[in-house]
Amino acid sequence: MTIEQRIGIIDIGSNSIRLAVYERTASGAHRVIDGSKRPARLSGAIDEQGRLMPDKIDELVDIMNHYRLICTHHRTGHIRTVATAAIRNAINRDEIVDRLQEETGMTIEVISGEEEARFGFLGMINSLDVRDGFLIDIGGGSTEISLFRDRTLVQSVSFPFGCVNMSRSFLTEDGTLPDTTLQTLEETVHAALEREPWLQWSPGLPLVGVGGTVRALGKLDQAISKYSFPLNHNYNISAARTDDLFEQLRFVPTEKRNKMPGLSKDRADVFITGLAILRVVYRKLQSTHYLVCGAGLRDGLFFDTRFSAKPRLDDVLGYSVRNLCALHPEAPPIHVVQVNRIAMQLFEALNRQTELPERAALWLDAASTLFRIGASIDYYQYSKHTYYLIINSHLNGLSHREIVIIAAIASFKGKSKLRQQLAEFRDLLSESDIETAALLGMLLQLSIALDRSETQSIGRLAVTAENGILKLSAVTSSGPLDIERAEVDELSKDFRKAWKLLPVLEMPYHNG
Predict the structure, then answer these.
(1) 120, 297 in Cβ contact below 8 A?
(2) What is the rounded CA–CA span in Å between residue 132 and residue 147?
(3) Which residue, 59, 186, 297, 441, has most beta carbons within 10 Å?
(4) What residues does 457 pair with on adjacent strands?
(5) 431-449 vs 415-422: helix axis angle to the nearest 10?
(6) What is the pLDDT of residues 282-340, one digit of tens each?
(7) Number of C-alpha atoms within 13 angstroms, CB side, residue 99?
(8) pLDDT at residue number 169
């Protein structure tokens, strides 16, 4: 890492204090190697004069020193610590910052609402393939809303209300939200939104949510619906579904609500007010649907710290695929590059033979780059481990359905096995998705066969498909292709069954 090999990011939020320790591996990959979350409820510990109470400052010092020890344990060279709304708006802000810096040795950045929105946007835009939309972050003591167009932040605003301070103002003693107080809460939020007329100028866009409220909404919906895919990030929720959940839960006391599947106990008491804020904003923006983003402020701070000259990614999926490869570097890179090159050439030639989905090339490109990552666990069963790693790793820029399809292509060992593999995800996949995965998986297997010796002997390859024959002519070669020819012959029957073409590898016209 240009600054340090390991970076610690600490977010002193209004609801919780979070730590993430990022590492740059020897192969150039970035990953989180440690993290922690402590509920603090700073927004609920502000007295009538607007001061953060002394016992909360003591607690905050203890948490920060604990995080400093964790960072020291990991030999973290650089720690970046930011504080948001609760400290930003406290009357005794300077006293808090001075004490934290004196007793922890850390530099504390108190960021503005606009900076908070910018970092949240950066974390989101580097983890989702979305061009236009609104971004919302409902914190404990503030709510940030941003408009982005063409993956660029256009405008943002920070409001001084969040799920903690609104819960203190509007929830009953048992944590419910009856009609009368709900109406007052909605009027309060609506009046604040009215003061920002630009919020109404871009209807018909998704509302992307970062932060605990929206993530909790996604986890709750997935738990209730028994959703098959183990990822909350990039999860779509309709307005109707959100409204149903809200109406079901707002009359449920906190004591019972914290037993709901998917809803964590440290979120249950403030979740309803967060959801109430979210719904008012959604209606005001005239959004199309909710989209959960698992990344946020800490991720944005990481990119801003690690890639300060250019923190925003141009290619979210490309970065994610390269990072996953670098996390599992056992595969020979030149072999992987060769397989990927051949796979994309075969796809270009055969895409004319059949109707494949619009993003099929993108799926094959990712799968033919990741097919060997499972060897980091065990070479002899690497396809099985590749499947598991892709399903359970963060492949950003893809829908959940697309991640499953790519995992199936990368680990393909036959159509019947593929069907067994994908049975648990039938709520995500159509029959045509399974057919596409089988076709592209077979194409990838042929590409692997064409470099079975892992010597990159085939230089230029000419591909023609006619009269039921897929002629593969090695125009240039740097060595014998006996192994490749044997592998292609072995695969030919299954390939012909899938593609209605018999692959034949012809020896080069001349050696290059």
Answers:
(1) yes
(2) 8
(3) 297
(4) none
(5) 130
(6) 999 999 999 999 999 999 999 999 999 999 999 999 999 999 999 999 989 999 999 99
(7) 16
(8) 94
Cα 194 to the center of its chain, rounded Å: 32
3-state secondary structure of 380: helix
Q: Two tokens at 196?
A: 């920002």
- Whether 164 and 141 have beta carbons less than 8 Å apart is answered as yes
Question: What is the side-by-side strand order in the sheet with 502-506?
Answer: 461-466, 469-474, 502-506
Segment 21-75, tens digit of pLDDT = 999 999 999 999 999 999 888 988 999 999 999 999 999 999 999 999 999 999 9
How far is residue 117 from each of residues 42, 123, 505, measured CA to CA in Å? 19, 10, 56
CA–CA gap between residue 171 and residue 181 (Å, rounded): 7
Domains and their CATH numbers in the chain: 6-110 (3.30.420.40), 114-298 (3.30.420.150), 316-453 (1.10.3210.10)
Distance, in Å, from the CA atom of 374 to the CA atom of 380, rounded to the nearest integer, reads 9
Q: What is the pLDDT of residue 100?
A: 97
Write the DSSP assignment of 178-243 as a string of letters.
-HHHHHHHHHHHHHHHHT-GGGGSS-S--EEEESHHHHHHHHHHHHHHT-SSS--TTEEE-HHHHH
Q: How many residues does the chain have?
A: 512
- Give the separation between CA 431 and CA 436, rounded to whole angstroms: 9
Cβ contact 86:97 at 8 Å: no
Cβ within 8 Å of residue 455, ≥6 positions away: 478, 479
CA distance 323 to 79: 23
CB-based contact 405:436 (threshold 8 Å): yes
Cα separation of the two ends of the chain: 40
State if pTM tops 0.90. Answer: yes
Q: What span, in angstroms and rounded, lies between the C-alpha atoms of 267 and 213? A: 8
> Taking 90 as the threshold, does the pLDDT of residue 276 lie above it?
yes
Cβ atoms 46, 30 nearer than 8 A: no
